[in-house]
Amino acid sequence: MVEATMPAEHWDAFRPGHAYPPDVVLEADRELQGLAELLERMGCLVRRPRRVPWAGLAGYCAAMPRDALLVMGDRVIEAPMAWRSRRHELLAYWPLVQEWRRTGARWMPSGVDLDVNPVREGPVIEDSWVIGEARPAWDAADFLRLGPRTVVGQLSHVTNRSGVEHLRQRLGPDVAVHLLRPRDRHAMHIDATLCPLSERLALYNPERIDPGDLARTPLADWELVPAPWPDPTPGPPLYMTSAWLNMNLLVVDDRHVVVEAEDVKVQELLAALGFTPLPCPFRHVQALGGSFHCATLDVRRDRHRTGRSSG
Ligand code: DAV
């Protein structure tokens, strides 16, 4: 999994029992607190996951709720994530899941034995996913909502075909799940490949997507704007992702979009598209594996104020 998805210079950092540098974690904590306060100033109710001693559980972290849970209408769906080191991640969200159930959410546990390792035996094969079909697997961040009845997603090193069928069954016949085929040999999550901004307007990753290839997909009649190529920035390494985290944004409402404080080109593009960018320092959270879309899970949206899905 690590070889297939991570930059080679960081493979060694993923050996078991090896924690992130403490200063990165400390700064990431501060940045998350800053994001929470920014969202609260925007009128959002922000809830944080419970802290879990991951080292004792051979676990990873719970900084990226977008990977573990998919919210669709009143459904909260547990993703049967591929990594065995993530099989206890629900512990961090469980008190919130209980609260959401009490207040009307339909909780859908994965029902999959997460102790089964879905990774194929043998070496990493070029142009092939490392995941096999030993059990259904999907990470929620391999899928994006394009409205109440449409989901787009991808196969990846963490999402297999039986996983897509598992998700389709969870969503039922009223929701169409359409698989895209971005050019991404290291694919693990689609939220640095496509970023829906409002109804029928999305940013796309010009390295991975050719809009001409999207005929006969739900995006065929969308306005698609290329995200700016990321600039190299100082700061902690991106251990797990590409620099395309610059387009991993959180759409707060019809106008406001949270964007990294240093990603000026993205801020300028958003302003040109009629949005108000909300700059927020997030480089240390990014080092843990994701940016604003990954690090949040929008559970309830106010229809009058926001009306539209952020994906
Ligand atoms: O495409 O570099 C970023 C998203 C991680 N949740 C990428 C992966």
Explain how this protein is built:
With 311 residues, the protein is of the alpha/beta class. It has one domain (2-299): 5-stranded Propeller (L-arginine/glycine Amidinotransferase, Chain A), CATH 3.75.10. 21% of the residues lie in helices and 15% in strands. The protein is built from seven helices and twelve strands. The strands form four sheets. The protein has a three-stranded mixed β-sheet. Strands 4-5-6 form a three-stranded mixed β-sheet, covered by helices on one side. Strands 7-8-9 form a three-stranded mixed β-sheet, with no helix packed on it. Delta-amino valeric acid binds next to loops.
Count of DSSP E strands? 12
Encode the helix/strand succession as letters.
Answer: HHHEEHEEEHEEEEEEHEH
The H-level CATH homologous superfamily, spelled out, is L-arginine/glycine Amidinotransferase, Chain A
What would CATH call the class?
Alpha Beta
In CATH, the topology is named: L-arginine/glycine Amidinotransferase, Chain A
Through-space gap between termini? 26 Å
- Compute the average pLDDT: 93
| Large-scale geometry | globular
The whole-angstrom Rg is 18 Å
Outline the low-pLDDT stretches. 306-311
Number of helices: 7
Instruction: Report the sheet-strand fraction.
Output: 15-25%
Helix content class: 10-25%
The distinct ligands, each listed once, are: delta-amino valeric acid
Strand order of the largest sheet: 1-2-3
Number of domains: 1
The second-level CATH architecture is 5-stranded Propeller
Structural class category: alpha/beta
